[in-house]
Amino acid sequence: MEKNILIVHGGGPTAVINASLYGAIKEALKHKEVQHIYGAVNGTGGLLKEQLVELDAVNAEELELLLTTPGSAIGTSRDELEQPEYEKMADILKTKNISCVLFNGGNGTMDTCGKLYQACRRKGFDIRVMGIPKTMDNDIAITDHSPGFGSAARYIAQSVREVCADVKGLPIHVVVVEASGRNAGWITAASALAADNGGPGPDLIYLPERPFDENKYIEDVKQLLTKKSGIVVVSSEGLKDQEGKPIVPPIFQVGRSTYFGDVSAHLANLVIQKLGYKARGEKPGLLGRASISLQSPVDREEAILAGELACRAVLEGETGKMVAFRRVSTEPYQMEPFLVDIDQVMLHERTMPDEYINEAGNGVTEAFKEWCRPLAGGDIPPMISFN
What we know:
Layout: E1 3-9, H1 17-28, E2 34-40, H2 43-48, E3 52-54, H3 60-65, H4 83-95, E4 100-105, H5 107-122, E5 128-133, H6 149-169, E6 174-179, H7 186-190, E7 204-206, H8 214-224, E8 231-236, E9 252-254, E10 257-259, H9 263-275, E11 279-282, H10 287-290, H11 297-315, E12 321-330, E13 333-341, H12 366-372
Parallel strand pairs: 1-2, 1-4, 4-5, 5-12, 6-8, 6-11, 7-8
Antiparallel strand pairs: 2-3, 9-10, 12-13
Helix pairs in contact: 1-11, 4-5, 8-9
Protein backbone atom coordinates (compact mmCIF):
# COMPACT_ATOMS: atom_id res chain seq x y z
CA MET A 1 0.00 0.00 0.00
CA GLU A 2 1.40 3.39 -0.99
CA LYS A 3 2.22 5.84 1.80
CA ASN A 4 2.99 9.54 2.03
CA ILE A 5 5.11 10.89 4.90
CA LEU A 6 5.12 14.40 6.36
CA ILE A 7 7.97 15.76 8.53
CA VAL A 8 7.28 18.75 10.79
CA HIS A 9 9.83 20.76 12.79
CA GLY A 10 8.79 22.60 15.94
CA GLY A 11 10.43 24.99 18.40
CA GLY A 12 13.97 26.32 18.41
CA PRO A 13 16.46 24.71 16.01
CA THR A 14 19.56 22.87 17.16
CA ALA A 15 22.89 22.07 15.55
CA VAL A 16 21.54 18.63 14.61
CA ILE A 17 17.83 19.07 13.86
CA ASN A 18 18.66 18.74 10.15
CA ALA A 19 20.59 15.55 10.90
CA SER A 20 17.33 13.99 12.14
CA LEU A 21 15.62 15.26 8.99
CA TYR A 22 18.41 13.60 7.01
CA GLY A 23 17.91 10.32 8.88
CA ALA A 24 14.16 10.32 8.31
CA ILE A 25 14.47 11.07 4.59
CA LYS A 26 17.21 8.48 4.05
CA GLU A 27 15.13 5.83 5.81
CA ALA A 28 11.95 6.72 3.89
CA LEU A 29 13.81 6.44 0.58
CA LYS A 30 14.59 2.80 1.39
CA HIS A 31 10.89 1.89 1.40
CA LYS A 32 9.28 1.34 -1.98
CA GLU A 33 5.80 1.87 -0.54
CA VAL A 34 6.65 5.52 0.24
CA GLN A 35 5.37 7.61 -2.66
CA HIS A 36 6.04 11.13 -1.32
CA ILE A 37 8.11 12.65 1.48
CA TYR A 38 6.84 16.09 2.44
CA GLY A 39 8.19 18.75 4.76
CA ALA A 40 5.91 21.33 6.38
CA VAL A 41 7.24 24.79 5.55
CA ASN A 42 7.79 26.60 8.88
CA GLY A 43 6.20 24.00 11.08
CA THR A 44 2.54 23.58 11.97
CA GLY A 45 1.72 26.99 10.49
CA GLY A 46 2.86 25.71 7.11
CA LEU A 47 0.78 22.57 7.50
CA LEU A 48 -2.32 24.61 8.34
CA LYS A 49 -1.68 26.72 5.22
CA GLU A 50 -1.00 23.55 3.22
CA GLN A 51 2.49 24.80 2.41
CA LEU A 52 4.46 21.62 1.88
CA VAL A 53 7.78 21.00 0.14
CA GLU A 54 8.62 17.70 -1.58
CA LEU A 55 11.78 16.16 -0.14
CA ASP A 56 11.95 12.90 -2.05
CA ALA A 57 13.34 14.72 -5.10
CA VAL A 58 16.30 16.24 -3.21
CA ASN A 59 19.55 15.04 -4.77
CA ALA A 60 22.15 13.12 -2.77
CA GLU A 61 24.62 16.00 -2.61
CA GLU A 62 22.03 18.40 -1.17
CA LEU A 63 20.85 15.76 1.26
CA GLU A 64 24.37 15.40 2.68
CA LEU A 65 24.50 19.17 3.31
CA LEU A 66 21.78 18.72 5.94
CA LEU A 67 24.42 17.24 8.25
CA THR A 68 26.41 20.49 8.32
CA THR A 69 23.58 23.02 8.05
CA PRO A 70 22.37 24.83 11.20
CA GLY A 71 18.84 26.07 11.74
CA SER A 72 15.93 24.18 10.19
CA ALA A 73 16.15 23.42 6.46
CA ILE A 74 12.34 23.20 6.21
CA GLY A 75 11.60 25.92 8.74
CA THR A 76 10.13 25.63 12.22
CA SER A 77 7.69 27.55 14.42
CA ARG A 78 6.35 28.18 17.91
CA ASP A 79 2.66 28.31 16.94
CA GLU A 80 0.08 28.46 19.73
CA LEU A 81 -2.53 25.87 18.75
CA GLU A 82 -6.03 25.16 20.01
CA GLN A 83 -8.39 22.24 19.39
CA PRO A 84 -9.82 23.59 16.10
CA GLU A 85 -6.30 23.75 14.62
CA TYR A 86 -5.63 20.11 15.50
CA GLU A 87 -8.91 19.08 13.88
CA LYS A 88 -8.03 21.08 10.77
CA MET A 89 -4.54 19.56 10.57
CA ALA A 90 -6.03 16.06 10.75
CA ASP A 91 -8.42 16.91 7.92
CA ILE A 92 -5.60 18.30 5.77
CA LEU A 93 -3.55 15.16 6.29
CA LYS A 94 -6.53 13.02 5.28
CA THR A 95 -7.21 15.14 2.18
CA LYS A 96 -3.58 14.98 1.07
CA ASN A 97 -3.42 11.23 1.67
CA ILE A 98 -0.63 11.59 4.26
CA SER A 99 -0.60 8.48 6.41
CA CYS A 100 2.56 9.07 8.47
CA VAL A 101 3.63 12.21 10.35
CA LEU A 102 6.96 12.77 12.11
CA PHE A 103 7.22 15.64 14.60
CA ASN A 104 10.77 16.71 15.43
CA GLY A 105 10.96 18.96 18.47
CA GLY A 106 11.03 19.49 22.22
CA ASN A 107 8.42 19.52 24.99
CA GLY A 108 5.96 21.80 23.22
CA THR A 109 6.30 19.90 19.97
CA MET A 110 5.77 16.55 21.69
CA ASP A 111 2.59 18.04 23.16
CA THR A 112 1.53 19.01 19.63
CA CYS A 113 2.46 15.54 18.40
CA GLY A 114 0.30 13.91 21.06
CA LYS A 115 -2.68 16.17 20.45
CA LEU A 116 -2.61 15.58 16.70
CA TYR A 117 -2.39 11.86 17.35
CA GLN A 118 -5.49 12.14 19.55
CA ALA A 119 -7.34 14.25 16.96
CA CYS A 120 -6.67 11.66 14.25
CA ARG A 121 -7.93 8.89 16.52
CA ARG A 122 -11.13 10.81 17.35
CA LYS A 123 -11.84 11.20 13.64
CA GLY A 124 -11.11 7.54 12.97
CA PHE A 125 -8.29 8.39 10.55
CA ASP A 126 -5.58 5.77 10.00
CA ILE A 127 -2.79 8.33 10.33
CA ARG A 128 0.30 7.35 12.29
CA VAL A 129 2.11 10.00 14.34
CA MET A 130 5.62 9.69 15.80
CA GLY A 131 7.90 12.03 17.76
CA ILE A 132 11.60 12.67 17.18
CA PRO A 133 13.20 14.27 20.28
CA LYS A 134 15.03 17.55 19.70
CA THR A 135 16.07 20.11 22.26
CA MET A 136 19.32 21.77 23.18
CA ASP A 137 17.85 22.26 26.68
CA ASN A 138 17.74 18.47 27.28
CA ASP A 139 14.48 18.79 29.20
CA ILE A 140 12.33 16.09 27.57
CA ALA A 141 11.17 13.47 30.07
CA ILE A 142 11.98 9.74 30.06
CA THR A 143 14.86 9.84 27.57
CA ASP A 144 18.41 9.86 28.99
CA HIS A 145 19.18 12.81 26.72
CA SER A 146 17.88 14.50 23.59
CA PRO A 147 19.57 15.20 20.25
CA GLY A 148 20.65 18.83 20.23
CA PHE A 149 21.98 18.84 23.78
CA GLY A 150 25.36 17.24 23.07
CA SER A 151 26.30 19.95 20.59
CA ALA A 152 25.07 22.71 22.92
CA ALA A 153 27.13 21.14 25.71
CA ARG A 154 30.23 21.06 23.53
CA TYR A 155 29.69 24.67 22.49
CA ILE A 156 29.33 26.00 26.03
CA ALA A 157 32.28 23.94 27.33
CA GLN A 158 34.59 25.12 24.55
CA SER A 159 33.42 28.74 24.73
CA VAL A 160 33.74 28.94 28.51
CA ARG A 161 37.21 27.38 28.36
CA GLU A 162 38.21 30.11 25.89
CA VAL A 163 36.74 32.85 28.10
CA CYS A 164 38.52 31.37 31.12
CA ALA A 165 41.82 31.40 29.23
CA ASP A 166 41.23 35.05 28.34
CA VAL A 167 40.48 35.98 31.94
CA LYS A 168 43.48 34.04 33.20
CA GLY A 169 45.67 35.98 30.78
CA LEU A 170 44.25 39.33 31.89
CA PRO A 171 42.86 38.70 35.40
CA ILE A 172 41.28 42.04 36.13
CA HIS A 173 37.53 41.37 36.27
CA VAL A 174 34.61 39.04 36.94
CA VAL A 175 33.04 37.70 33.73
CA VAL A 176 29.51 36.27 33.83
CA VAL A 177 28.53 33.98 30.94
CA GLU A 178 24.77 33.46 30.53
CA ALA A 179 23.66 30.06 29.20
CA SER A 180 20.35 28.99 27.71
CA GLY A 181 17.79 27.01 29.70
CA ARG A 182 14.57 28.38 31.19
CA ASN A 183 13.92 25.85 33.93
CA ALA A 184 16.55 23.17 33.29
CA GLY A 185 20.24 23.79 33.89
CA TRP A 186 21.75 21.09 31.67
CA ILE A 187 23.52 23.48 29.29
CA THR A 188 24.73 25.74 32.11
CA ALA A 189 26.07 22.68 33.93
CA ALA A 190 27.92 21.46 30.83
CA SER A 191 30.22 24.48 31.11
CA ALA A 192 32.00 22.51 33.87
CA LEU A 193 33.57 20.35 31.15
CA ALA A 194 35.74 23.35 30.29
CA ALA A 195 38.00 22.32 33.19
CA ASP A 196 38.58 18.79 31.87
CA ASN A 197 42.18 17.64 31.44
CA GLY A 198 43.54 20.55 33.43
CA GLY A 199 41.93 23.22 31.27
CA PRO A 200 40.75 26.56 32.64
CA GLY A 201 37.16 26.23 33.84
CA PRO A 202 34.42 28.29 35.47
CA ASP A 203 34.72 29.24 39.14
CA LEU A 204 31.00 29.32 39.88
CA ILE A 205 27.94 27.77 38.18
CA TYR A 206 24.37 28.77 39.02
CA LEU A 207 21.46 26.60 37.90
CA PRO A 208 17.70 27.31 37.76
CA GLU A 209 17.04 24.18 39.85
CA ARG A 210 18.27 26.06 42.93
CA PRO A 211 16.74 29.32 44.23
CA PHE A 212 19.22 32.12 43.60
CA ASP A 213 20.38 34.00 46.68
CA GLU A 214 21.88 37.36 45.77
CA ASN A 215 23.75 37.73 49.05
CA LYS A 216 25.20 34.22 48.79
CA TYR A 217 26.32 34.97 45.22
CA ILE A 218 28.12 38.14 46.28
CA GLU A 219 29.75 36.25 49.16
CA ASP A 220 30.87 33.48 46.76
CA VAL A 221 32.49 36.05 44.48
CA LYS A 222 33.99 37.99 47.38
CA GLN A 223 35.65 34.87 48.78
CA LEU A 224 37.13 33.98 45.41
CA LEU A 225 38.50 37.50 44.98
CA THR A 226 40.67 36.95 48.06
CA LYS A 227 42.45 34.19 46.11
CA LYS A 228 42.43 35.37 42.49
CA SER A 229 41.73 38.57 40.57
CA GLY A 230 40.00 37.07 37.52
CA ILE A 231 36.81 35.02 37.93
CA VAL A 232 34.40 33.36 35.49
CA VAL A 233 30.79 32.71 36.48
CA VAL A 234 28.29 30.75 34.36
CA SER A 235 24.61 31.35 35.04
CA SER A 236 21.35 30.10 33.60
CA GLU A 237 19.05 32.56 31.85
CA GLY A 238 16.23 31.23 34.03
CA LEU A 239 17.58 31.95 37.54
CA LYS A 240 14.78 32.52 40.05
CA ASP A 241 14.69 33.85 43.61
CA GLN A 242 13.36 32.14 46.74
CA GLU A 243 9.78 32.96 45.69
CA GLY A 244 10.23 31.44 42.25
CA LYS A 245 10.33 34.78 40.46
CA PRO A 246 12.95 35.52 37.76
CA ILE A 247 15.84 37.49 39.26
CA VAL A 248 15.51 39.83 36.28
CA PRO A 249 11.86 40.52 35.36
CA PRO A 250 11.00 39.15 31.90
CA ILE A 251 10.87 41.81 29.22
CA PHE A 252 7.84 40.09 27.73
CA GLN A 253 5.90 36.90 28.37
CA VAL A 254 3.04 35.21 26.53
CA GLY A 255 2.02 31.58 26.99
CA ARG A 256 5.12 29.38 27.24
CA SER A 257 7.26 32.01 25.51
CA THR A 258 9.32 34.13 27.87
CA TYR A 259 11.68 36.88 26.79
CA PHE A 260 14.06 37.05 29.73
CA GLY A 261 15.92 40.07 30.91
CA ASP A 262 19.72 40.08 30.69
CA VAL A 263 20.80 37.90 33.63
CA SER A 264 24.54 38.11 32.87
CA ALA A 265 24.47 41.91 32.83
CA HIS A 266 22.46 41.92 36.07
CA LEU A 267 24.93 39.64 37.87
CA ALA A 268 27.89 41.64 36.57
CA ASN A 269 26.27 44.87 37.76
CA LEU A 270 25.74 43.38 41.23
CA VAL A 271 29.48 42.76 41.51
CA ILE A 272 30.23 46.32 40.43
CA GLN A 273 27.67 47.86 42.76
CA LYS A 274 28.25 45.74 45.88
CA LEU A 275 31.95 44.93 45.62
CA GLY A 276 33.25 47.82 43.58
CA TYR A 277 35.02 45.38 41.27
CA LYS A 278 35.15 45.43 37.49
CA ALA A 279 32.73 42.96 35.87
CA ARG A 280 31.06 42.24 32.55
CA GLY A 281 28.42 39.93 31.11
CA GLU A 282 28.59 37.72 28.05
CA LYS A 283 25.57 36.08 26.36
CA PRO A 284 26.25 33.59 23.53
CA GLY A 285 22.51 33.23 22.90
CA LEU A 286 21.63 31.71 19.52
CA LEU A 287 25.29 30.95 18.81
CA GLY A 288 24.96 28.03 21.22
CA ARG A 289 22.50 26.25 18.97
CA ALA A 290 23.76 27.44 15.57
CA SER A 291 27.40 26.39 15.78
CA ILE A 292 28.25 23.67 13.28
CA SER A 293 31.98 24.03 13.94
CA LEU A 294 31.38 22.80 17.50
CA GLN A 295 28.75 20.21 16.59
CA SER A 296 29.19 17.02 18.63
CA PRO A 297 29.76 13.99 16.38
CA VAL A 298 27.97 11.78 18.90
CA ASP A 299 25.02 14.18 18.88
CA ARG A 300 24.91 14.19 15.08
CA GLU A 301 24.94 10.40 14.79
CA GLU A 302 22.23 9.98 17.43
CA ALA A 303 20.10 12.64 15.73
CA ILE A 304 20.36 10.71 12.45
CA LEU A 305 19.45 7.51 14.28
CA ALA A 306 16.41 9.14 15.92
CA GLY A 307 15.12 10.24 12.50
CA GLU A 308 15.72 6.81 10.99
CA LEU A 309 14.01 4.93 13.81
CA ALA A 310 11.00 7.24 13.93
CA CYS A 311 10.45 6.84 10.20
CA ARG A 312 10.89 3.08 10.33
CA ALA A 313 8.53 2.79 13.29
CA VAL A 314 5.59 4.57 11.62
CA LEU A 315 6.07 2.60 8.43
CA GLU A 316 5.94 -0.59 10.50
CA GLY A 317 2.67 0.47 12.14
CA GLU A 318 3.72 2.25 15.35
CA THR A 319 1.92 5.46 16.34
CA GLY A 320 1.47 7.79 19.31
CA LYS A 321 5.06 7.37 20.47
CA MET A 322 8.46 9.09 20.57
CA VAL A 323 11.97 7.74 20.01
CA ALA A 324 13.98 7.86 23.26
CA PHE A 325 17.45 6.82 24.46
CA ARG A 326 18.42 4.62 27.39
CA ARG A 327 21.96 4.78 28.85
CA VAL A 328 23.50 1.29 28.91
CA SER A 329 26.94 2.35 30.09
CA THR A 330 28.98 5.53 30.37
CA GLU A 331 32.51 4.14 30.12
CA PRO A 332 32.58 2.98 27.43
CA TYR A 333 29.61 5.02 26.28
CA GLN A 334 26.74 2.91 25.05
CA MET A 335 23.07 3.68 24.66
CA GLU A 336 20.05 1.92 23.22
CA PRO A 337 17.00 3.52 21.59
CA PHE A 338 13.43 2.61 22.47
CA LEU A 339 9.91 3.94 21.94
CA VAL A 340 7.96 5.70 24.69
CA ASP A 341 4.24 6.54 24.66
CA ILE A 342 3.81 10.18 23.66
CA ASP A 343 1.56 10.95 26.62
CA GLN A 344 4.51 10.32 28.94
CA VAL A 345 6.52 13.17 27.44
CA MET A 346 3.87 15.78 26.57
CA LEU A 347 5.12 18.91 28.42
CA HIS A 348 6.73 16.82 31.18
CA GLU A 349 9.86 18.85 31.87
CA ARG A 350 13.04 17.07 32.97
CA THR A 351 15.34 19.10 35.19
CA MET A 352 18.77 18.42 36.75
CA PRO A 353 18.53 15.83 39.56
CA ASP A 354 19.95 16.64 42.99
CA GLU A 355 22.88 14.26 42.62
CA TYR A 356 24.22 16.38 39.75
CA ILE A 357 24.32 19.64 41.75
CA ASN A 358 26.93 20.36 44.43
CA GLU A 359 25.94 20.94 48.05
CA ALA A 360 26.67 24.67 47.91
CA GLY A 361 24.42 25.11 44.88
CA ASN A 362 27.14 26.92 42.93
CA GLY A 363 28.54 24.08 40.86
CA VAL A 364 28.03 20.52 39.64
CA THR A 365 29.21 17.11 40.79
CA GLU A 366 31.62 14.71 39.16
CA ALA A 367 28.64 12.41 38.53
CA PHE A 368 27.15 15.00 36.19
CA LYS A 369 30.41 15.46 34.32
CA GLU A 370 30.80 11.71 33.86
CA TRP A 371 27.26 11.54 32.47
CA CYS A 372 27.76 14.53 30.17
CA ARG A 373 31.22 13.94 28.69
CA PRO A 374 30.36 11.31 26.06
CA LEU A 375 27.44 13.38 24.74
CA ALA A 376 29.72 16.34 24.03
CA GLY A 377 31.63 14.14 21.62
CA GLY A 378 35.11 13.80 23.05
CA ASP A 379 37.74 16.04 24.54
CA ILE A 380 37.83 19.70 23.59
CA PRO A 381 41.21 20.99 22.36
CA PRO A 382 43.88 21.42 25.08
CA MET A 383 45.35 24.81 25.93
CA ILE A 384 48.57 25.98 27.55
CA SER A 385 49.49 28.70 30.02
CA PHE A 386 52.82 29.72 31.58
CA ASN A 387 51.04 32.07 33.97
